[in-house]
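Sharing a chain and its predicted structure for anyone who wants a worked example. Both blocks are below, sequence first, tokens second.
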Amino acid sequence: MALIAKDTNDYLEQMVLLTKRLCEITQNQLTALDSNELTDVKPLNDEVSRLAAAYSSETRRIAQNPDLLQSGNPALKAALRDCTEKFRDLMEKHENALERKMRLTEGLVQAIAKEAMNARPTPISYGAGGIKTAPARANTTAIALDRKA
């Protein structure tokens, strides 16, 4: 989705609005991550996808043609620069928050799997002459976890 503007200032205004909206959504996602209320941001996923695609496309367009903004109002260019810096900061915070959640989740899954494995008895196998023997590896028990775990 490309932005359609009548002139450079209109384009800058649209980019500022786009960037501000992405900042707003990212801040909402950070708040939801911190409070573990991820269902609050699920309805915004479609909007985020569309806006992120437009933002990516337009920032590439600006990078390929820096003269595109040259004739724009300096105040609008400064506003876009400020919004972009804020958005980058929020995205860094968002990435860090997601990484923390991922590490926490992985740790929980590993701890649950370890406890489940330790709670099961070590399997016994039968050797020559019907003699019971412990397997070479004690943790040969299979374990399956689903989304309810």
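Comments welcome. The chain is about 65% helix and 5% strand.
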